[in-house]
Amino acid sequence: VSIEEEVVGPGGDSNIAAPIVTLAAQATKPQPMEFSLNASVRVRFNGERHLHAWLSHQFSGQAGAKLSLASRARQFSSMLVLVGRIASATVFEPKYAAIV
Predict the structure, then answer these.
(1) pTM across the whole model
(2) CB contact at 8 A, 20 and 84
(3) Using CB atoms within 10 A as the burial measure, which of 2, 9, 28, 37 is most buried?
(4) How far apart are CA 85 and CA 64, in angstroms?
């Protein structure tokens, strides 16, 4: 998984997606977390977790960065990618999700 920023070349004629630098943390044996699918269904999950954070600053009058999330899985492999916020030590509130 990589988070990429669109970088505009000189003259504005070439756009290249370049990975951004993030703060990262990995937990190999954390306590279980859960998230809600709807009002009556909660999913509990274990396993490795990778947390990436990015601090964006901009000056007034500047446009924000154009970001994209790129995820790739090897053949016969898959992963669940969740984008959202951590509400507590055991609750994750997903905003977006994808199976890769």
Answers:
(1) 0.61
(2) no
(3) 2
(4) 20
Chain segment 18-69, per-residue pLDDT in tens: 777 888 888 777 789 899 888 899 999 888 778 878 777 777 877 777 777 7
**DSSP for 55-81?**
-----TTPPPP-EEEE----TT---EE
Using the 8-state DSSP alphabet, how is residue 95 labeled? E
Do 69 and 3 form a contact (C-beta atoms < 8 A)? yes
Task: Please state, in angstroms and rounded to a whole number, the distance separating the CA atoms of residues 97 and 1.
Answer: 13
Residue 57's Cβ-count burial label (10 Å; 0-12, 13-18, 19+) is exposed
Between CA 65 and CA 15 the distance in angstroms is 13
* pLDDT above 70: residue 8: no
